[in-house]
Amino acid sequence: MTTTTLPVLIGSSAAARALDGDITAAARSDAKVLITGESGVGKEIAARLIHTRGARRTHPLFAMNCAGLPDSLLESELFGHVRGSFTGAYRDKPGMLQAADEGTLFMDEVGEMSLRMQAALLRFLETGEVQRVGADAVSAPVNVRIICATNRNLRERIASGEFREDLYYRLNVIHVHIPPLRERREDIRELLQAYLRHYAARHQTMLPQVSQEALDLLMAYDWPGNVRELKNVIERLIVRATQGEVTIDDLPVEIRCVMPPINAMSAGADAPPAPGSAEIEARRLFNAMVRDGASFWTTVYEPFHTHDLTRETLRLIVTYGLEQVRGRYSALTELFNMDRGDYKRFLNVLRKHECLVPFHAFRSAPSSTVSRETAAPADTTRENWVL
Ligand SMILES: Nc1ncnc2c1ncn2[C@@H]1O[C@H](COP(=O)(O)OP(=O)(O)O)[C@@H](O)[C@H]1O
Ligand SMILES: [Mg+2]
Asked: What is the CA radius of gyration of the chain?
């Protein structure tokens, strides 16, 4: 697999510039590289850049994914096979290692390889010799630069016996780590602009304006799927943009309901919320429901019922929810993934445990400006509730 267009790395955050420097340094050497980072952060693009900036650039770059293939297929992909070695092997076929001779082989998701395949790869790395599946002899040594990537924590996999330590040290000569997008938020704006232009051109539509409110939400979102997710969201926005402007209502629900990042949440407070605090816990559970689709009953009510979750945390969750739906209790059932018919039961639970948070403060305020202080202990006067 080769590409004709050169990959471009977008972003000028400190982390993006450091990554660019790491890539250039790795390209100057011929050593094996291990690229780590969450899914969608740009591991493959980094691997391509290391190849295209390096001395092997005039030779091929092949990419293969080690996940999801049974050993027999992976082995034949990597080492090739000889005719008749298995059903369907009608002719001799070189593997990726031979095809990429003098060039680079990018092995994605290397953390998913079985121990058997890890042993085979290690053997190759030690000898440089390739033995095709079904062949009696080894072929002449090949000269391939190996770049691997994984979103796994390989140290943990070594500890649990799922990854060979000796292979880890072989592959990890140069380590390039790419931080998640939420840790380099400065890059979001640039990526956004670049992809808006890119997809507007591709779909031959006008470049839309992004409203300030929508931009704020896009910048505050955690992007669990990193750049890949951002790219997909932007393409959908471009395809659906009608009025030449992207507003909050055009954003996917998980972004519209974004919780501000923890730093922003505590802005003005004396100290950031401590790990394990009610605020952190509430935010985690809120995201589990609003972003990941978990139900209030299993995610919040059950642990609350068994006293694993405090009243304060429950009140905070209700507060965050009310902020998103501007104080409409009735809209919380949908936001928290309950059945519509659960509305009464939901209110009863909150009332019984004094967790009905006053909704007034959320009524007219734009969703992001309501102070967290409104998560004060429940006011018990009945007039304050929407029922
Ligand atoms: N810094 C970046 N600049 C431009 N595009 C990027 C950047 N990082 C990631 N991408 C794009 O995001 C998508 C996911 O990147 P990829 O390298 O496949 O991620 P990973 O291999 O880590 O899952 C690709 O389309 C890639 O081109
Ligand atoms: Mg990838």
From this structure: 26
Strands 145-150 and 33-36: parallel
Q: Whose CA is nearest to atom 17 of ligand 1?
A: 42
> What digits encode the pLDDT tens for the residues 144-167?
999 999 999 999 999 999 999 999
Cβ neighbours for 168, distance < 8 A, ≥ 6 positions apart? 154, 155, 158
Backbone conformation region of residue 386, classed left if phi is above 0, alpha if psi is from -120 to 50, else beta: beta
Compute the distance between CA of residue 163 and CA of residue 5 in angstroms, rounded to an integer. Answer: 35
Report yes or no on whether pTM surpasses 0.90: no
The predicted model gives 190-205 an average pLDDT of 93
Per residue in 110-120, pLDDT tens?
999 999 999 99
**Nearest of 200, 218, 308, 293 to residue 255 by alpha carbon:** 218
For residue 280 and ligand 1, the question of a CB distance below 6 A is answered with no
Q: Give yes or no for residue 10 CB within 6 A of ligand 1.
A: yes
Residues 28/168, Cβ–Cβ less than 8 Å: no
Q: C-alpha dihedral over 123, 128, 133, 135, to 10 degrees?
A: -120
What's the 236 CA to ligand 1 centre distance in angstroms? 17
Contact indicator for 51, 38 with CB cutoff of 8 Å: no
Q: What is d(CA 173, CA 50) in angstroms, rounded to the nearest whole number? A: 14
Please tell me the predicted confidence (pLDDT) of residue 271: 58
The helix (run of H) or strand (run of E) holding residue 36 is strand 33-36
Instruction: Encode pLDDT of 55-67 as tens digits.
Output: 999 999 999 999 9
Q: Which of 6, 9, 45 to mutate to test the pocket of ligand 1 (most atoms within 8 A of CB)?
A: 45
- Whole-angstrom CA distances from 48 to 14, 35, 78, 103, 106 are 21, 11, 19, 12, 8
Q: Which atom of ligand 1 is nearest to the CA of 149?
A: 21
Q: Is the pLDDT of residue 293 over 80?
A: yes
| DSSP β-bridge partners for residue 33 | 147, 174
> Is the CB–ligand 1 distance for residue 48 below 6 Å?
no
Report the half-sphere exposure of 169 (CA within 13 A, side-chain side): 3
In angstroms, the Cα distances linking 20 to 2, 17, 36 are 21, 5, 15
